[in-house]
Specification:
mainly alpha, 8 helices
Length: 200
């Protein structure tokens, strides 16, 4: 009789866990982790390209040292942040990570603009290959970030719904941190349009 009661309780507990969304929370949590791992992989790929780009540019006579220094500093800052899977559970840490990566993106963009003033670099096949790899990596970063954003959105929506929100609360699953839009305050400002200065 006791064995039969235990079997019934185990079956009831299993169906209760399945019906409360526990297994689906696990699946979606793993999807977020996988998407985050891909984001980190692409950021690491970019960080690995930068020393080669800097060394190639250093060979150009009279290249702007301040621009190179900013790239090196931004890379050091971006790679100094410990990017662990737990980072997605800490909005402040994710914001710091995102800010450091944004500063690196800005420094690289400035470097590529400055390169336009150096015909030898523009004609350098090795530099052009590195530039192409960097552009491809930036595209991969954008794709990986979009997948992460979608995975987090799916997870967050799911753990806020009833009855999953109760299960998530009981087992300690909270909403995941999301990437923010760079310069969000600037995007909210309406653009200024002035037709009065147009030539007639």
């Amino acid at each position: 009789m006791t064995r039969m009661l235990r079997a019934v309780l185990a079956l009831a507990l299993a169906s209760l866990l399945a019906g409360c969304g526990y297994n689906e929370i696990q699946r979606r949590d793993e999807a977020v982790k996988a998407a985050w791992a891909e984001v980190l992989s692409q950021y690491q790929r970019r960080a690995d390209l930068i020393p080669n780009i800097v060394n190639t540019v250093k060979g150009e006579a009279n290249f702007e040292q301040e621009t190179l220094a900013r790239v090196v500093e931004a890379r050091a800052k971006a790679t100094s942040i410990q990017a662990t899977p737990e980072l997605v559970n800490d909005p402040a840490a994710l914001a710091r990570f995102q800010q450091a990566q944004g500063e690196l993106s800005s420094a690289l963009a400035r470097l590529l603009v400055v390169v336009e003033n150096y015909p030898n670099l523009k004609a350098n096949a090795a530099f052009q290959d590195l530039r192409t790899q960097l552009e491809g990596t930036e595209n991969r970063i954008a794709v990986a970030r979009n997948r992460y954003i979608k995975a987090v959105q799916d997870y967050n929506t799911y753990v806020r719904q009833i009855p999953q929100n109760i299960t998530a609360m009981v087992f300690g699953y909270r909403e995941k941190a999301q990437f923010a839009v760079d310069n969000e305050a600037e995007l909210k400002k309406a653009p200024t349009v002035d037709f009065g200065t147009a030539k007639k």
